[in-house]
TrEMBL record:
Keywords: ATP-binding, Kinase, Nucleotide-binding, Serine/threonine-protein kinase, Transferase. GO terms for molecular function: ATP binding; protein serine/threonine kinase activity. Residues 401-459 are annotated as: Disordered. This is non-specific serine/threonine protein kinase. Belongs to the protein kinase superfamily. CK1 Ser/Thr protein kinase family. Casein kinase I subfamily. PROSITE patterns: PROTEIN_KINASE_ATP, PROTEIN_KINASE_DOM, PROTEIN_KINASE_ST. The keyword Kinase applies. Residues 411-424 have a biased composition (Low complexity). ATP binds at K127. Its EC number is 2.7.11.1. CDD domains: STKc_CK1_delta_epsilon. It catalyses: L-threonyl-[protein] + ATP = O-phospho-L-threonyl-[protein] + ADP + H(+); L-seryl-[protein] + ATP = O-phospho-L-seryl-[protein] + ADP + H(+).
């Protein structure tokens, strides 16, 4: 019985991404309204109820309601579809004044949506997490953000709360991640861009550590550029895995432990993290070293390793990290990268990294290379070059297009004239009369079109 009704429910909604896993399980849609989730499917002796409620309060305050089924499957499904479609036009809001828009990304423990402050019109980001998540993290992440509030490159949390079945966090809207920009630049950054980023990245991590937290998931995806006037500023996000490494008042450090599970992203994890050692400040800094080398090289030697299980894959990554000499990993790049990596790997568990020293070695290299602190990153240059190429290509194609259009116009005119003359009809009383050729006064339309700018668009 359950399987039969599950198939009857699922089939009509394939185009709308509906799914029914089993009877008495939620029926949900990711494309039709996010405002509505079928909450219960109750089986009765003579009819079926589908009770559904909004994920978020609708702007008109309309209440939840029920649909009934009288054993006519078609009628019931049509009623449900119309009801859901009608509700999809309603505003989805959190915190009374933030409207939810399209999905723009995903974090460790939730999805991120573009939002709008309906009072000011300002665009913001909204991160959502189901309250039924196995390990809810969003409330904790919001507390970490508030502990870090005021720091350069730390997004500000505007609001946090629960709306029906979802936790929601509203924060500053930022631009693309460094991983996005890395892909945009064909997966290779110049030395100048890496050094410009390194200076800011070290400072962001230093600030987090100064507030008694370690991030524990340092990777390109978790660093986002700003937008507008702050487009050159690196911001750090996703604190779902962050942890206090010391007491904020006494500065008493957490104890050394072993046999810990790997927390973070294996590609950038420190060797000690692979070995199961409790993470501390040194591990964030070592992970940053791998991020910088990833930007320089285009990839890391332990990427793409195959294994039967996740644990075996992590073990292979660890083995490759441990057996790849620093000089091999950094070959072809300035010695400062090897110095950085060797330094971070030499730190003891509770050592405070010398952030100023690490910044200085890269700043000295920057000056020695003759670079300018103009904050012109690779993606800025690459976008300009792509736009210039598009404009040049359009300009080169324009004369050819206009010539082809003119030639086509002459051909059409000649064909029309010839066809109309050949189709003359002889009138016995008046003699042959040919229809007047139309189109002799045809005007050629210009084929010139505006050139669409190509490049990365911010979220």
């Amino acid at each position: 019985m359950a399987q039969r009704w599950a198939s009857r429910v699922a089939a009509p909604f394939e185009d709308f991404a509906f799914s029914v896993h089993a009877l008495l399980q939620p029926l949900s849609s990711s494309s039709l309204p996010r405002a509505i989730q079928a909450d219960r499917l109750l089986l009765g002796p003579s009819f079926f109820h589908l009770h559904h409620k909004p994920l978020f309060r609708l702007s008109d305050g309309s209440p939840s309601h029920q649909l009934k089924h009288d054993n006519n499957g078609t009628t019931w499904f049509i009623s449900l579809l119309v009801d859901l479609t009608a509700n999809s036009t309603q505003d989805l809001r959190v915190g009374n004044k933030y409207r939810i828009g399209r999905k723009i990304g995903s974090g460790s423990f939730g999805d991120i949506y573009l939002g709008t402050n309906i009072i000011s019109g300002e665009e913001i980001a909204i991160k959502l997490e189901s309250v039924k998540a196995k390990h809810p993290q969003l409330e904790y992440e919001a507390r970490v953000y508030k502990s870090l509030a005021g720091g350069v490159g730390i997004p500000f949390v505007r609001w946090f709360g629960t709306e029906c079945d979802y936790n929601a966090m509203v924060l500053d809207l930022l631009g693309p991640s460094l991983e996005d920009l890395f892909n945009f630049c064909n997966r290779k950054f110049s030395l100048k861009t890496v050094l410009l980023l390194a200076d800011q990245l070290i400072s962001r991590i230093e600030y987090i550590h100064a507030k008694s937290f370690i991030h524990r998931d340092i990777k390109p995806d978790n660093f986002l550029m700003g937008i507008g006037k702050r487009g050159n500023q690196v911001n750090v996000i996703d604190f779902g895995l962050a942890k206090k490494y010391r007491d904020p008042k006494t500065h008493f450090h957490i104890p050394y432990r072993e046999n810990k599970n790997l927390t973070g992203t294996a590609r950038y994890a420190s060797i000690n993290t692979h070995l199961g050692v409790e993470q501390s400040r040194r591990d964030d800094m070592e992970s940053l070293g791998y991020v910088m080398l990833y930007f320089c090289r285009g990839s890391l030697p332990w990427q793409g390793l195959k294994a039967a299980t996740k644990k075996q894959k992590y073990d292979r990554i660890m083995e490759k990290k441990m057996t790849t000499p620093t000089e091999v990993l950094c070959r072809g790049f300035p010695n400062e990268f090897a110095i950085y990596l060797n330094y971070t790997r030499s730190l003891r568990f509770d050592d405070k990294p010398d952030y100023s020293y690490l910044r200085k070695i890269f700043r000295d290299l920057f000056v020695r290379e003759g670079f300018q602190y103009d904050y012109v990153f690779d993606w800025t240059v690459y976008k300009y070059q792509k736009n210039a190429q598009a404009v040049a290509q359009a300009a080169a194609n324009q004369p050819q297009a206009e010539e082809a259009e003119e030639k086509a116009g002459r051909t059409r005119t000649a064909a029309a004239t010839a066809g109309q003359t050949a189709g003359a009809v002889t009138d016995k009383r008046r003699g042959p009369v040919a229809p007047r050729a139309e189109g002799s006064g045809m005007q050629l339309r210009s084929s010139k079109r505006g050139v669409e700018q190509q490049g990365y668009s911010n979220y």
